[in-house]
């Protein structure tokens, strides 16, 4: 047919010629499908993952391709899923036989049977992921687009090949994927599809936490994460996944006094920080930095709305949230906790930047002072240009003072200039409570600027403190 489109240029990588030869030898029709085709048409760069669908045995095709490749790569076979995978040079190719699927109500794992290409495309999540290119010799590069995926790419629409109600009910992870693709690509989810996500939102409960978190990570790592979190909130999914964020939504007013909507403020902070860092865990810190505000919100006639201790409460909530979502309870979580706990510290000292306050800030933040400052600068969401400029200038002053203090006092990665052993030798004492008291007093004196961070000054201070505690210097 004259109106059939060809995209031979998409298949320039030598691997496709090898696959084509193998398919001809086995007398199979085969196609490249999914993300490779989508990303090529969107000019998003060349994908390193290639999905091949064979109308027949994908495993047999993979083994034949391996034999034809110069490096004869090892073929990994996953018999349960009827798939095989090989890596060659810079790419990973997965082979699967065309299949059809049916689902039970309580699982997203389908019953799989052999099928046609059309049935295989029917089971795909979105029209833009159902696009296939012939890799068979006779029709090399010809596109197969039964659901109008090309038009949806052009219109920037996320749409399901079949009834979205069935698509999302069968595999509820697709609801997360729809929102993730909309966020990553800047596409809109078709209205009927959006309504189906809302209708099936409680089906997300059958999805493992690990799968959900994987999609959350991808949303957070996109250029504008707020797109995804607004969609998660609008469809009701966020209430199941991150109720701590939903609790921040809304504005209360008492006696004419209001507070900002902390949910939308949070999303602004996440977008702001995403312009300056690709660090996933710092983006998580931005997302969670205000979660302690919902449980600490109070109204006082004298001062209006308050959120006293929200940083401390929020840092505790981070642990519960990570545990519930089966996220790593390791240094990544501790980093997020620390950022949430300290998220207001630079803001508090920015109006009056003293040496001692900056020393304590650098001491407490340690290796993460730069990340903390990046978070606090992202936290400036005022729409008042004068205030915006003023707050940023304040943080510039804090940063400058940090450089000066660090150059002089070496507070980052602080090590006491006087060791416990030296204290014991000086006073001829064994390990005891007094050693801890003296070391803490030395640290406090350095942070307050009473003595410099130097051995001799600290040693003199140590003797004085020891004598106050009734200790005697040994000659």
Secondary-structure topology with pairs:
Blueprint lengths: L13 H13 L3 E4 L1 H7 L7 E6 L3 H11 L7 E3 L4 E6 L2 E7 L1 E4 L8 E4 L2 H6 L9 E3 L8 E2 L4 H7 L1 E2 L5 H7 L2 H13 L2 E2 L1 H9 L9 H12 L5 H10 L1 H5 L1 H4 L6 E2 L2 E2 L3 H13 L5 H9 L4 H4 L1 E3 L3 E3 L3 H15 L6 H11 L3 H6 L4 H11 L3 H10 L6 H25 L10 H8 L5 H16 L6 H14 L7
Parallel strand pairs: 2-5, 10-11
Antiparallel strand pairs: 1-2, 1-8, 3-4, 4-5, 6-7, 8-9, 12-13, 14-15
Helix pairs in contact: 1-3, 7-9, 7-10, 13-14, 13-20, 14-17, 16-17, 19-21, 23-24
Features:
single chain, 475 residues, alpha+beta, seven-stranded mixed β-sheet, two-stranded antiparallel ribbon, 24 helices, 52% helix
């Amino acid at each position: 047919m004259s109106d059939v489109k060809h995209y031979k240029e998409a298949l320039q990588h030598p691997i496709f010629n090898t696959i084509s030869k193998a398919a001809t030898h086995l007398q199979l029709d085969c196609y490249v499908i999914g993300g490779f085709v989508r990303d090529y048409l969107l000019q998003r760069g060349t994908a390193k993952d290639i999905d091949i669908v064979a109308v027949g045995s994908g495993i047999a095709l993979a083994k034949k391709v391996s034999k034809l490749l110069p490096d004869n790569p090892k073929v990994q076979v996953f018999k349960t899923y009827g798939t095989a995978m090989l890596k060659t040079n810079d790419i990973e190719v997965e082979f699967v036989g065309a299949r059809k699927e049916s689902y039970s109500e309580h699982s997203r794992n389908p019953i799989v049977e052999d099928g046609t290409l059309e049935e295989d495309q029917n089971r795909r999540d979105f029209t833009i992921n159902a696009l296939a290119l012939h890799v068979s010799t006779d029709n090399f590069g010809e596109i197969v687009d039964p659901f109008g995926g090309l038009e949806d790419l052009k219109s920037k629409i996320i749409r399901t090949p079949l009834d979205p109600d069935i698509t999302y009910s069968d595999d509820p992870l697709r609801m997360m994927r729809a929102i993730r693709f909309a966020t990553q690509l800047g596409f809109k989810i078709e209205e009927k599809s959006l309504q189906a996500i809302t209708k099936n939102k409680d089906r997300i409960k059958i999805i493992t936490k690990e799968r959900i978190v994987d999609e959350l990570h991808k949303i957070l790592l996109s250029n504008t994460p707020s797109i995804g979190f607004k969609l998660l909130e609008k469809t009701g999914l966020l209430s199941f996944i991150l109720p701590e964020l939903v609790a921040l939504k809304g504005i209360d007013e008492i006696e004419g006094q209001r507070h900002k909507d902390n949910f939308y403020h949070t999303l602004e902070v996440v977008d702001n920080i995403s312009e300056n860092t690709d660090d996933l865990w710092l983006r998580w810190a931005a997302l969670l930095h205000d979660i302690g505000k919902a449980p600490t919100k109070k109204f006082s006639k004298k001062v209006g709305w308050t959120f006293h201790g929200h940083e401390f409460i929020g840092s505790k909530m981070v642990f519960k949230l990570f545990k519930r979502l089966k996220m790593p309870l390791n240094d990544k979580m501790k980093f997020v906790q620390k950022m949430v706990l300290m998220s207001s510290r630079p803001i508090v000292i920015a109006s009056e930047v003293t040496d001692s306050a900056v020393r304590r800030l650098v001491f407490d933040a340690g290796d993460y002072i730069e990340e903390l400052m990046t978070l606090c600068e992202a936290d400036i969401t005022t729409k008042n240009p004068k205030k915006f400029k003023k707050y940023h200038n304040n943080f510039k002053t804090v940063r400058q003072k940090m450089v000066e203090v660090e150059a002089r006092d070496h507070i980052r990665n602080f090590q006491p200039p006087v060791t416990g052993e030296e204290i014991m030798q000086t006073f001829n004492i064994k390990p005891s409570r007094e050693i801890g008291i003296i070391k803490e007093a030395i640290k406090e004196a350095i942070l307050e600027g009473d003595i410099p961070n130097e051995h001799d000054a600290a040693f003199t201070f140590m003797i004085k403190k020891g004598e106050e505690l009734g200790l005697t210097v040994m000659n």
